[in-house]
Specification:
Layout: E1 8-13, E2 16-21, H1 32-47, E3 53-58, E4 62-64, H2 69-72, H3 86-103, E5 108-112, E6 115-117, H4 119-126, E7 129-133, E8 137-139, H5 153-161, H6 163-172, E9 176-177, H7 178-183, E10 189-191, H8 196-208, H9 212-225, H10 230-244, H11 248-258
Parallel strand pairs: 2-3, 3-5, 4-6, 5-7, 6-8, 7-10
Antiparallel strand pairs: 1-2, 8-9
Helix pairs in contact: 1-3, 3-4, 4-5, 5-6, 9-10
Bound molecules: ligand LHQ.
């Protein structure tokens, strides 16, 4: 991971790639450059076998405030070149990120350090696991600017908290504090603000030491279950298990159990 970016920071430690959204002055608002750089960082993570877990977090007091509204404000002026092509904007700037987060065959953890609003919340929901600082919060801000939740939040949020709660959060756009997010299943863990970096490192290092291929295939099966019926899903599980069963990590796991020792997974 040797690329240099201006809106995201990247660092690799113990097989964990940490991507930090880095525009703290706007609460890490998502702009054109960030869309390109975040996509590039995720793409590099896909290709690098040494990376076995990805952490997405934010610099400063926020996780991500969603679309940079300053960047697009000119499009709302009376003398602008015309309105935004929202469909094209979502297809080209947002869908590729969500697709990468969901199809990356490695665990993705959102370390939600502060407020996650609009598409910033959607990115956190597209991760596999969410660990939040006690002072973090989620806001489905779309409704406050007359928009519909995007970046797959209509699917992910609903899967996480159920239809009724998702509808309430999307319609009212109220801020959900971390403790409430934990109670409704929106996050996996909440830790004191100052403990977030260490708790994230510990969780990510554990995930990176797990059998990465099996986790990647599990993620495929979980993704597919969003739309599959029971028969389809049983068949798909048989299909991915056939692959997982051929890995060195599967053999290592079985041998470690038989030999009564800790397994040493290689991600292969
Ligand atoms: C920001 C932003 C921001 C720029 C805070 N942009 N500067 C898809 C298709 C196409 C177009 C539209 O969008 C989308 C998808 C979406 O993501 S729609 C939703 C867009 N996001 C929002 O509507 C959230 C706007 N932000 C807020 O509601 C608040 O800032 C939150 C609740 C996130 C945090 O509130 P506070 O903690 O009170 O902070 P603040 O409002 O004072 O913000 C601090 C600074 O960050 C401030 O700048 P300033 O120069 O005054 O210090 C804000 O203007 C700036 N900022 N969000 N999205």
């Amino acid at each position: 991971m040797s690329q240099t970016f201006s809106t995201v920071l990247t660092g690799v430690e113990n097989g964990v790639l940490t991507i930090t959204l880095n525009r703290p002055e706007s609460l890490n608002a998502y702009n054109e450059t960030m869309s390109v750089e975040l996509a590039a960082a995720l793409k590099a993570a896909e290709r690098d076998d040494a990376i076995r877990c990805v952490v997405l977090t934010g610099a400063g007091r926020a996780f991500c405030s969603g679309q940079d509204l300053q960047e697009v404000r000119g499009r709302y002026a009376a003398d602008s070149q015309g309105p935004i092509d929202f469909g094209a904007h979502l297809r080209s700037k947002y869908a590729p990120i969500v697709t990468r987060l969901r199809t990356l065959e490695k665990p993705v953890v959102a370390a939600v350090n502060g407020v996650a609003a609009g598409a910033g919340a959607s990115f956190a929901f597209a991760a596999d696991l969410r660990i939040a600082a006690a002072g973090a919060s989620f806001v489905m801000a779309f409704v406050h600017v007359g928009l519909v939740p995007d970046s797959a939040a209509t699917v992910t949020l609903q899967r996480l908290v159920g239809f009724g709660k998702a509808a309430e959060l999307c319609f009212l756009g109220e801020k959900v504090p971390a403790d409430e997010a934990l109670r409704i299943g929106l996050v996996n863990r909440v830790v004191p603000d100052e403990a977030l970096p260490a708790a994230t490192r510990e969780l990510a290092a554990r995930l990176a030491a797990m059998p990465t291929r099996a986790i990647g295939l599990t993620k495929r099966a979980l993704n597919r279950a969003w739309t599959a019926d029971l028969g389809d899903q049983l068949e798909y599980e048989a299909f991915v298990q056939q692959t997982a069963g051929q890995t060195a990590d599967h053999r290592e796991g079985v041998m470690a159990f038989i030999e009564k020792r800790k397994p040493r997974f290689q991600g292969k």
